[in-house]
Amino acid sequence: MDLNIRQPLSLDDLKDMARINRLDVARMFMAAGNGHFGSCYSCTEIITVLYFALMRIDRANPDWMDRDRFVMAKGHAAPTLYSALIRRGFIPEKWMDEYETAVGARLMTHPSRRYQSGVDTSQGSLGHGLSIGVGMALAAKLDKRDYNVYVLMGDGETNEGSVWEAAAAASKFRLQNLVGIIDLNRLSVDGELENVMPMEPMVDKWRAFGWDVVRVDGHSLPALLKVLAPQRNVGASAPRMIVADTIKGKGVSFMENVRSWHADLISSKQYSDLVSELGGVGV
Amino acid sequence: MSQLKNSTILTKIASLRNQATNIRELALRMGAVQGQGYIGQALGIADVLAVAYFGAMQYRPQEPNWEGRDRFVLSIGHYAIALYAVLIEAGFISRAELETYGSDDSRLPMSGMANTTPGMEISGGSLGQGLPIAIGMCLGLRRKQSNAFVYTLLSDGELNEGATWEAALSAAHWKLRNLIAIVDVNNQQADGPSSQILSFEPLVEKWQAFGWDVTRVDGNDIERVFSALEDARRLDADKPRVVICDTLMGRGVPFLEKREKLHFIRVEPEEWDAALHVLRSEVSA
Amino acid sequence: MKSTRLKTSAMIASIAADGQPTVSAPFGHALVRVAAQRPQIVGLTADLAKYTDLHVFAAAFPDRFYQMGMAEQLLFGAAAGLAREGFVPFVTTYAVFAARRAYDFIYMAIAESKLNVKIVCALPGLTTGYGPSHQATEDVAIFRGVPNLAIIDPCDALEIEQATAAIADHNGPVYMRLLRGQVPLLLNEYGYTFELGRAKMLRDGDDVLFVSSGLMTMRVLEAASTLKTDHIDAAVLHVSTIKPLDETTLLMQIAKPGRLVVVVENHTVIGGLGEAVLALAMRNGSNGRMRQIGLPDAFLEAGALPTLHDKYGISTTRIVAQVKSWI
Predict the structure, then answer these.
(1) Residue C8: which residues within 8 A CB-CB, separation 6 or more?
(2) Which residue of A66, A247, B147, C261 has the lowest C-beta tally within 10 Å?
(3) Do C84 and A128 touch (CB under 8 A)?
(4) C123 in contact with B, Cβ within 8 Å
(5) Quick one: pLDDT band at residue B127, thresholds 50, 70, 90?
(6) Residue A104 pLDDT more than 70?
(7) Å between C303 CA and nearest CA of chain B
């Protein structure tokens, strides 16, 4: 399969890329002995759709000025992004096995622009990403370019006041080229979002802050393809927010909705169970 | 019975109007001491403060730290001149101390400081901190099974601050029914009208989406403010309450109401007396 | 009760002495000149354009000016986004809000990626009587802890103008302490030119070596004149780049024998220029006599600025008295 894609993949191929993504992530976490499984698996479909069907990017030209930007605001789910970058040809596959463990490893818990081609911004401190996205979207308007800026946030992250500052600004500056995505898996480190800091009604909040909001099943490829499509030079002036209902740990039966899999150790047995469930090692 | 109640309320409102005028006068006198001060804001918010302190809150002026008191958190530290005025009117501070406003070693510094002035609950200045602090106060009061309320006065500009929304989320989450936020919407911040700086409307919908009970009133209509705060206290619901008050900067002194809307209004030395005179004559008119 | 009126406005404190030549809003005007040559320069503030002299830039280049509202974390995050796209943001607020409220954003979103953001903040150290919420007594200490971040503390209007151009050319993030409004002008009399990373001798002397930056350089120059009438000969080394420190020049001047070295800072004695210089000397085996004048490790009082400077030992009179007691 030619993975420097010029045509978007078919639904079946996308489904397979998502499966491969989950295997890659597990492989990285196996190398390290632990990882943010839950957080990575809840956004697999979202990242797959963006990187293999929708975003305007080119592995030969990672800094291409007209590229669509992607801000991995929920930085701790970086391995999902790494897999997509590897499979799209931005970074070498062998880096996966050094993940976090080798001295000089170039793939770490959080994305770093210093080390990884194709990463638009380093991340790790939750609550920053949407502000950075606002800046990038403003720059597009200054430069009169039509790229879109995608910002993937965690739902817990929307507790951060800075997210609401960015929300207000995006609306004020009419950044229709900015697309926020909330991976609403309803679990954070300390437990259920309802008990930690509930965010519902999520849609009403964003609407009250002036955004165009849709709510979708975050694991439905057709739904994601529809709502995440870039908008270029259209008349709309409001920024867009996609509230994606997801399942933490999706795709692996013993991980789905289990709080401890926010970040946990993985044993060899668990790893081989996971690999069988996901239909063997990938491409 | 309703006629009696009506006349009681009318008397109450008249009395509150009187107190609001006194607050305005005290604020102007303090402004005159230094030749400057956030007098526009003080004049605008005087009606709300009068209602809060004389029509809503429980406290003991001689015992500013009385455990059973309702707390008043001045999130907007630069409104200190207004709060000092009501604290003087309420008896926390003697009228004689007015002369020391903004001077060295004064108990009345230009920006509200907690350990300096009786009745000043927090050290303001850095806007957007009051509501977060109020959350903690409400939780503590609940643990002590206290019936006290925490009133927090915020400015519309403070709604730009993410910390405000962090606190808003938290208040609803903790079901803080002892929290009453008051937002002074005078549509003015340092760099110009709030609506141009970082537009915050629709305000009511935002607070509702964040889980609060919301009322919006003309902040210079004492009767409306009075019943809004009364409803806020009496609401039987496990949610925090916010009363959004639209006010006019400089209210009570027409030539200041009409003055170019600056965050920090300049008043010429000779204008202080004129303002006091106009205030009194507006009242008797 | 007799009261002392404030000698200056708490908000618009001018540190110029009566009759001293001043320049109005040197930063704002300098930025306009630089921005005319550099189209990538944009200006951002969090509702403090008027109080950081950025309003001058806003008036000249309204389409390059971003009012982000009172949201400092958003302010620095958005600046990072713009910088990633090749713009050079000049971002203003008060030093307290940058150093405290938005520190995490400056550290992670800007400095960690060495982005080309210029953070220019008014009210550094003790330059307002407004109280601790606005007195950035520890700003240098905080920002010294950030890798990649250059720290500039200019003395007067001339230096502010030159530094504004210099930091626009510098590749990487910068934190610049700003004096605003009517800013004194004095370095023109010393044939001075700002160079990022270079400490410069403004006057030589055999008895005392003052080491200072920013506003304190103005004070120690005055102190040096006064001390001369008491036959105490004082040198002044102006260290306007606090990070990276010009270690060569500092060590060379400290090593000169027979002088009492006095570091003077508009900053807490903890973690600023004072400790930086003292630590440098100690690491290099200097055993000269060294003293430090700075603000105490305390929440400072509110009040009139002249009173506070006197109270906390950084007025010219107090500096002179202190030095005499040490000689």
Answers:
(1) C14, C129, C304, C305, C306
(2) B147
(3) no
(4) no
(5) confident
(6) no
(7) 5
For residue C150, give how far its alpha carbon lies from the nearest alpha carbon of chain B (Å): 26
The per-residue DSSP string of C33-100 comes to HHHHH-TTEEEEESS-STTTTTHHHHHH-GGGEEE--S-HHHHHHHHHHHHHTT-EEEEEEEHHIIII
Contact residues on chain A for B208, CB-CB shorter than 8 A: 204, 208
CB within 8 Å: C5 and B191: no
Give the pair of three-digit tokens for residue B161: 């601050």
- In total, the C-beta contacts within 8 angstroms joining chain B to chain C are 100
Residue numbers in C near A62 (CB within 8 A): none
Q: For residue range C141-168, what is the model confidence (pLDDT) as tens digits?
A: 999 999 999 999 999 999 999 999 999 9
Query: From the CB of residue A92, how many other CB atoms can be counted at a distance below 10 Å?
Result: 11
For residue A140, what is the nearest residue in chain C, using CA coordinates? Answer: C85
Is A165 within 8 Å of C71 when comparing Cβ atoms?
yes
Is A180 near chain C, with CB under 8 Å? no
Residue A215, classified by CB atoms within 10 Å of its CB into exposed (0-12), middle (13-18) or buried (19+), is: middle
What pLDDT is attached to residue C2? 34
Closest by alpha carbon to B77, among B160, B195, B157, B141?
Answer: B157
DSSP track, B45-72: HHHHHHHHHHHT----TT-TT-TTPPEE
pLDDT at C78: 86
Cross-chain Cβ contact C109/A169 below 8 Å: no
Residues 6+ apart with CB under 8 A from C170: C150, C196
Owner of token pair 């990276």: C244
Which of the two residues, C7 and C271, has the higher pLDDT score?
C271
- Kindly determine whether residue B102 and residue C9, on different chains, have CB atoms separated by under 8 Å: no
Partner residue opposite A139 with nearest CB, options C85, C104, C109: C85
User: Does the pLDDT at position A4 exceed 60?
Assistant: no
- A146: amino acid identity, one letter: D
pLDDT exceeds cutoff 90 at C289: yes
